[in-house]
UniProtKB/TrEMBL annotation:
Residues 35-144 form the Type I restriction enzyme R protein N-terminal domain. It comes from the Bacteria. Gene3D superfamilies: 3.90.1570.30. Pfam families: HSDR_N_2. This is Type I restriction enzyme HsdR N-terminal domain-containing protein.
Amino acid sequence: MQPLNFPSYSFRLKASENKTLIFDVIRKKSVVLTPEEWVRQHVVHFLHQEKKYPLSLISVEKQLKINSLNKRTDIIVFDRQGLPYIIVECKAPSVKITQSTFDQIARYNLQLEAPVLMVTNGLEHYYCHMDHNRKAYNFLPELPEYEF
């Protein structure tokens, strides 16, 4: 897998049936290593090791219903009250971050109402603070650290 724009982390990789698997510390199991999963695992480690969010507050591939359709968020970080605090949308490094990427995470956030959003393809990262009253977002220079 290609190097990403994150610090270097140690991952548990293994081969199985001609596929490479990576251990997910949140789901506590090995999952197929796709380019998007490579980004997702880097974000999980970044949130925990750099931004100090406890693993117990991080959820991966959480299912939600939007307009009677089942969707999955890549990563949600909850606050101590169990409310969504950060939603992360991960794309493979080859996928450009476009307005449709922001539209996708905004649709998820209509239901979840998290105050912070992150969109990344592992190479480019965008952080936003939501103003739910004005239905707008403001870009942040970096993701806030854990301080609950």
